[in-house]
Design a protein that fits this description.
31% helix; 230 residues; two-stranded antiparallel sheet
């Protein structure tokens, strides 16, 4: 009997998807746009064939070589703007994820049980509509604080997180979802502000995870993003 159990365990393990392999196999998800339109995406790393033979050397990354010899399909544009470079960790209770862990979160958590897990885009709606990580849900930082002029947005934000609002200053976190938060990049403080604020009102810290790299890191690695909502 023990032998059979061992063989079964080995078969299950051998067919289990290892997180690092998801960048090659992709993750199937469904994304809901802000206009409620739904679309299926395969979240994967997309690298043009022209980029495969670029040598990883100092010469390849010289400005002149990039300008004259590198295909535009192999380049990513980063706009340098104001912001505050964030630390690697918020605190010892809140995990920080890389792209591999985010993909595994989509594969093993949100796509299988959206009632308990959620990927949160903490940016304002215009950024979310421009492009985001497929299957993420837009919960802007501003919507977490009660404003009588935007009460509907406030209630929607907490409903998406699985939190019951008892009144504007009291919450029931019994069914709070495990949430991964992100924003524009390592210099963007919005997602960490969301986490810190939710922690201050009682959201369990072991249910909050931070994707520090955000859209900047995600796109720099040629991972799938949504279409712009026109």
């Amino acid at each position: 009997m023990k032998v059979l159990i061992l063989i079964f365990s080995l078969l299950v393990y051998s067919h289990a998807v290892k997180p690092y392999a998801l960048q090659f196999t992709g993750v199937k998800v469904e994304h809901t746009y802000s206009n409620e339109k739904k679309e299926n995406y395969l979240v994967e790393r997309k690298i043009d064939a022209k980029c495969m033979n670029i040598s990883v050397s100092a010469e390849s990354f010289e400005d002149k070589n990039i300008t004259n010899n590198i295909s535009h399909k192999c380049k990513k544009t980063v706009i340098k703007t104001t912001g505050i470079i964030q630390p690697l960790y918020i605190n010892e209770n809140i995990k920080t994820y890389s792209e591999i862990e985010v993909m595994n979160f989509l594969y093993s958590k949100t796509s299988k049980n959206s009632a308990e897990y959620i990927l949160v885009d903490s940016r304002v709606k215009s950024w979310f509509d421009f492009r985001t990580i497929p299957s993420s849900v837009n919960i802007p930082f501003e919507d977490l604080k009660y404003d009588e002029d935007f009460e509907e947005d406030f209630n929607k934000a907490y409903k998406n997180l699985g939190i019951k609002v008892l009144n504007k200053n009291k919450y029931d976190f019994t069914n709070a979802k495990t949430a991964v938060f992100f924003c524009n990049g390592p210099w963007c403080p919005i997602s960490s502000k969301s986490i810190k604020y939710l922690s201050s009102i009682g959201y369990p810290e072991n249910k909050m995870i931070w994707y520090r790299g955000g859209m900047s890191s995600w796109e720099s690695l040629s991972l799938s993003v949504t279409k712009s909502l026109k």
